[in-house]
Amino acid sequence: MVGLEELVCKRDERPLFAPLTMTVNGGDCVEVLGPNGAGKTTLLRTIAGLHKQYDGVYDCANFIFQGHRIGLDELMTPLENLAWFGSLQGAKFNDQVMQDMLLKVGMAKLALTPCQRLSQGQQRRVAMAKWLLSSAKVWLLDEPYTSLDRAGQDLLNEVLAEHCGKGGVVMAATHVPLRVGKLRTLNVIPSEADS
């Protein structure tokens, strides 16, 4: 579902890290590890087609990318954001399906509250509901634990494990170890030119 072959992301024509080669299959959950500034975020952005400076080859289809910005309109409610997300995906989710997803991530009671009134952790939970509603098989996640309390982290691990258990793929750049069953690691080692 995701293939990397001698992939090196660059910034200003300088390689950020040593070449990466990996095949990620359905059911795999991959921790993308490395020190700050190694290029983990840039790697995910490249796989998502958002960063164009690279050498090597990558292949990824049917994905959703969640960066540091979680893509919620803060003036809209969680329900409105999920409906908006659906329209961007070319889907129309019925209200009950959206309510069920919000219930699953612990946000049903705040479904009609403008997102600007939610904490960062609560907004992260709404973002998780977006992933659950998506038909994407591959989830590219940048620091998914950010702003989540312990209960939110446990929920995230459950959501990731469930997605991979259904044959989906997760690639997550993280400093917090993922706690899911079939876990693989991709180490992003800074280029010698930058050390």
Notes on the structure:
By secondary structure, the protein is α/β, with parallel strands linked by helices. The protein has two domains: 1-62 and 137-147 and 160-195, Rossmann fold; 70-136. Helix content is 30%, strand content 25%. It has five helices and nine strands, in the order ββββαββαααβαββ. Strands 6-7-8-4-9 form a five-stranded parallel beta sheet, sandwiched between helices. A hairpin with a 2-residue loop joins β1 and β2 (14-15). α3 (95-104) crosses α4 (120-133) and α4 (120-133) runs parallel beside α5. The two termini are 32 Å apart. 33% of the residues are buried.
Q: Count of helices?
A: 5
Taking all Cα atoms into account, the compactness measure Rg is 17 Å
What is the CATH architecture assignment of the largest domain?
3-Layer(aba) Sandwich
What fraction of residues sit in β-strands? Answer: 15-25%
Q: Average pLDDT, to the nearest integer?
A: 94
Q: How are the strands of the biggest sheet laid out side by side?
A: 6-7-8-4-9
| Helical percentage | 25-40%
Major beta-sheet overview:
5 strands, parallel
Overall tally of structural domains: 2
Features:
195 residues, Rossmann fold, 2 domains, 5 helices, elongated
Brief digest:
This protein is 30% helix and 25% strand.
